[in-house]
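Researcher: Quick test of sequence recovery. Tokens follow.
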């Protein structure tokens, strides 16, 4: 078995088609007729653009408009006036078109590859794709025709470029296997949109796999089995059938509102970590974003991101979401999330230490920079602010006072923002559960962070395997805490959501419906499954289950009971 990264879920069983990299080598020559060489280069560029438009058209049909735009982006790269101008200059100086174009592309590739962020790094892959496309044309090399691949083909390549993916006929390609790439590469995104199981970063696969060899790939687990035996084929074929059946079932819930069996509507939103993930939330049919973890913006940098950088990131997510809700959580560092340049001291008990809102309230400049960026972005969508790790009323008051201070500054500077922006809190500490009634009077909404709430209620670190038997949201203490928080929110007429992992747990859903939760914030791929789960319960049935579950004395009994009825 070869381990890689599963980037598009599902099982693919088929025969390998190796996409060998063409040797794009040539002997650079000095040209004398530079005008003719420039003309040859321009014709290659035109031909490249024609091919790309055709590929984009094909992709529009198979994957959608947005994905086709990825391809069209290649045209803007190749037609970049600076790039073309510099290539012209090199040709005028006597270089052949191949050498001139390659050296300019290589320059961009090295600049983009050195960037810290994934988006710019991805541009390096795009330029590489453009470079080999134009060089192939200049050198007269014809590519393997992926569009002619027979039914039951697993494509295997060092790197699968968007232009290769554009040629895929969904009916025939049952899997994608590559030696490089990861979850965020364009080809991974496209594979997910096309719903083709894909494994990337499978080490040395190009030298181990043979053309026409049978292969099984598990895109969920990131596993590859070359030349599987009959029993393995049978096992994975059954798994594949089951997954496809489940997927077909779930697809019935796409585009539908999230309602229980007796017609109560719920909000089903997503947890995201990057602005681009907002698009993923929409692709997976999420109704907005219930938790934008902003730490990544800080983790991806070597110094704190400026107000402008943060504003652009939040604005981007808001624009993608087109007025669907977007809850932005302010910086939640410390605990397991370290950011070197913030100079957090080593602590004996980092989870009980100087983290999240505690750190932000003591570093007001940093906090206000973030609040101003969020406020400015609020002019572009339906944004709310959420404070993490609240344990007492003072923290909410102080945080809100800073929001007011930032609002006043923006008014003076005549910068637009949403005057009615909501400010809520994460209830994820035992303290917040116990004083939920007091906190509800200070907050516009609650979002229960069960990942931390479980740890803080049980005094059990989820990373410590010796105490992991205690770490469960189904512990009677944690369930009582959750119930108390939701009920306090309901009594004070504020909406209560949940953004911890438990929001997507089928065993928890009847309890949450019974307690009165109104918003479920889950990872994007869980949206349809959670919508289906919610649709199965009436309030009456959920109440009966909750009443019984809340009477058990142990986590084991709760779990056994819920596993039976859910
Ligand atoms: C939580 O604690 O449940 C939560 C959603 O926050 P995080 O996982 O980012 O700590
Ligand atoms: Mg948390």
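Model:
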């Amino acid at each position: 078995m070869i381990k890689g990264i599963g980037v598009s879920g599902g099982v693919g069983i088929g025969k390998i088609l190796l996409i060998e990299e063409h040797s794009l080598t040539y002997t650079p020559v000095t040209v004398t007729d530079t005008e003719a060489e420039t003309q040859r280069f321009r014709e290659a560029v035109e031909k490249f653009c024609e091919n790309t438009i055709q590929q984009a058209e094909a992709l529009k049909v198979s994957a959608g408009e947005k994905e086709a735009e990825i391809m069209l982006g290649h045209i803007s790269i190749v037609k970049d006036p600076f790039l073309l101008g510099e290539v012209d200059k090199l040709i005028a100086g006597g270089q052949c078109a191949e050498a001139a174009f390659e050296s300019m592309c290589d320059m961009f590739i090295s600049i983009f590859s050195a960037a810290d962020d994934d988006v710019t790094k991805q541009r390096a892959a795009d330029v590489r794709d453009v470079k080999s496309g134009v060089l192939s044309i200049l050198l007269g090399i014809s590519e393997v025709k992926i569009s002619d691949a027979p039914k039951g083909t697993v494509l295997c390549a060092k790197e699968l470029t968007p232009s290769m993916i554009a040629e895929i006929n969904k009916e025939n390609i049952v899997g994608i296997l590559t030696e490089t790439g990861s979850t965020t590469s364009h080809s991974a995104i496209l594979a997910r949109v096309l719903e083709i199981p894909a494994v990337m970063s499978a080490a040395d696969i190009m030298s181990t796999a043979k053309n026409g060899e049978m292969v099984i790939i598990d895109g969920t687990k990131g596993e590859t089995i070359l030349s599987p035996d009959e029993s393995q084929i049978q096992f994975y074929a059954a798994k594949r059938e089951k997954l496809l059946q489940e997927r077909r079932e779930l697809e019935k819930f796409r585009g539908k509102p999230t309602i229980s069996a007796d017609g109560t509507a719920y909000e089903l939103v997503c947890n995201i970590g990057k602005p681009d993930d907002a698009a993923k939330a929409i692709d997976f049919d999420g109704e907005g974003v219930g938790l934008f973890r902003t730490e990544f913006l800080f983790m991806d940098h070597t110094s704190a991101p400026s107000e402008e950088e943060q504003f652009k990131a939040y604005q981007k997510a808001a624009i993608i979401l087109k007025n669907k809700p977007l809850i932005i959580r302010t910086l939640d560092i410390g605990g397991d999330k370290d950011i070197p340049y913030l100079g957090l001291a080593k602590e004996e008990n980092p989870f009980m230490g100087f983290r999240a809102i505690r750190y932000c309230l003591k570093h007001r400049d940093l906090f206000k920079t973030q609040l101003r960026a969020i406020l400015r972005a609020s002019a572009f969508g339906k944004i709310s602010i959420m404070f993490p790790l609240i344990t007492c009323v003072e923290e909410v008051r102080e945080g809100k006072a800073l929001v007011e201070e930032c609002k006043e500054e923006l008014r003076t500077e005549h910068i637009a923002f949403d005057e009615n922006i909501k400010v809520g809190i994460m209830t994820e500490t035992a303290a917040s559960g116990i004083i939920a009634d007091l906190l509800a009077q200070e907050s516009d909404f609650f979002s229960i962070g069960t990942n931390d709430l479980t740890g803080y209620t049980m005094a059990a670190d989820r990373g410590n395997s010796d105490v992991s038997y205690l770490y469960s949201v189904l512990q009677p203490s944690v369930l009582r805490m959750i119930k108390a928080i939701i009920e306090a929110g309901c009594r004070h007429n504020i909406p209560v959501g949940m953004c911890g992992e438990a929001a997507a747990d089928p065993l928890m859903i009847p309890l949450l419906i019974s307690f009165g939760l109104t918003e479920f914030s889950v990872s994007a791929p869980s949206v349809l499954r959670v919508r289906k789960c919610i649709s199965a319960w009436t309030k009456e049935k959920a109440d009966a289950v909750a009443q019984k579950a809340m009477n058990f004395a142990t986590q084991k009994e709760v779990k056994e009971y819920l596993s039976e009825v859910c």
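The chain has a mean pLDDT of 92.
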